[in-house]
Write a structure and sequence with these properties.
It is an enzyme of class 1 (oxidoreductase). The record marks 34 as: Involved in heme-bound ligand stabilization and O-O bond activation. FAD binds at residues 195, 211-214, 402-405. By secondary structure, the chain is of the alpha/beta class. It has 13 helices and 12 strands. It has a 6-stranded antiparallel β-sheet, sandwiched between helices. It has a 6-stranded parallel β-sheet with strand order 10-9-8-7-11-12, sandwiched between helices. α10 links the parallel β8 and β9 (331-337). α2 crosses α6 (99-115) and α6 packs antiparallel against α7 (121-151). It is globular and about 70 Å long. The two termini are 30 Å apart.
Length: 411
Amino acid sequence: MKGVFDLRTETIEIIKSTVPVLEQHGENITTRFYEMMFEDHPELLNIFNHANQKQGRQQKALAGSIYAAAQHIDQLEKILPVVKQIAHKHRSLGVKAEHYPIVGKYLLLAIKDVLGDAATEEILNAWAEAYQEIAQVFIQVEQEMYAEAEQSPGGWKEFRRFIVDRIVQESAVISSYYLVPEDKKELASFQPGQYVTVKFPIPGESHTHLRQYSLSDSPSKPYYRISVKKETSNNETPQGIVSNAIHAYLQEGDLIELTAPAGDFVLNLQSEKPIVFVAGGVGLTPLVSMLNTVVEAQPTRQVTFIQAAQNSELHAMKEQVKQLSNQHGQLRTYTIYDQPTLADQEQQNYDAAGLIDAAWLRKVIDDTDAEFYFCGPVPFMRHIYAILKQWEIPASQIHYEFFGPAAAIEG
């Protein structure tokens, strides 16, 4: 991030003076930014997730990123982990250098539109200068990621066509799709926990829809596997356009296009500490990839795998995880159902009912000096994170990923 240190002292001071304003008006600015940009550049709707736009998650995430940049404008190295995380998503979606001037233009227009006369020429010029520096860092990092994805053994540029070799229904709402390259050439490896971007044409839709799905098996397999939940609408989220289309239309033998694996939520195989996976619903997908890998690569490392689901009908991969537990003495598994069915209650096929709480979690974890990985709905993740912070688990041993735009883990 050498370039960011080229910012003038007066620019840094002006940017820092806007922090309180961004805290108050950040989401209004980013909402207006997307409105104006998409109105003038509808082609960019082929890249952005429409559902995240409708829910306001993208606007909130961008506002958070801008706020963090303003806070740390004099120490931008502090946001480097976030830069890399976003860059992984950008590379996976096909964001290019030529998109950054467009974003910069409409970001400044949105600041002026929302703040009015308070957005002085001095403030706008300072943000223009800062944006140029930060954009160059993103462009450089992403160019390196593009080169690595293309030049790695089995790697490729942009999209590659895969054949749906097999489809397995994992639960009432989740199905796994086993994908092999159409060209029958080498398959690029990946780090457990990473994802791919899927481009899937949807009948009647005018724009391309891209979605990122975690790879749900280990890198040692001769295929990629994605496990897709059919997202239905509720009070918080709209119906999943892509997930529903995949469930409705994708058949064995069909072709689907993917970008190369990306993502920084990955398993640390350098550590020998006990490992605890806590999955909420479909959040198990990256964690199952990690689980399959750790029992292969570290057969003596102690592993605890906890799966939270509504009930057995919505509990995906239960038999797969159980089989792993039977085969590997290092692995202990636990199931907690929020709403067990009558059949579940009769069969007692779960370890606890209700929501995970600190007392129950502490009972099933022998050693809290462990590496914790968790993934699931945002409220679930905030709950697990709060428990771990209460236990004073070091930040370096807490690992998590949000599906979609990042959110505040403390909320």
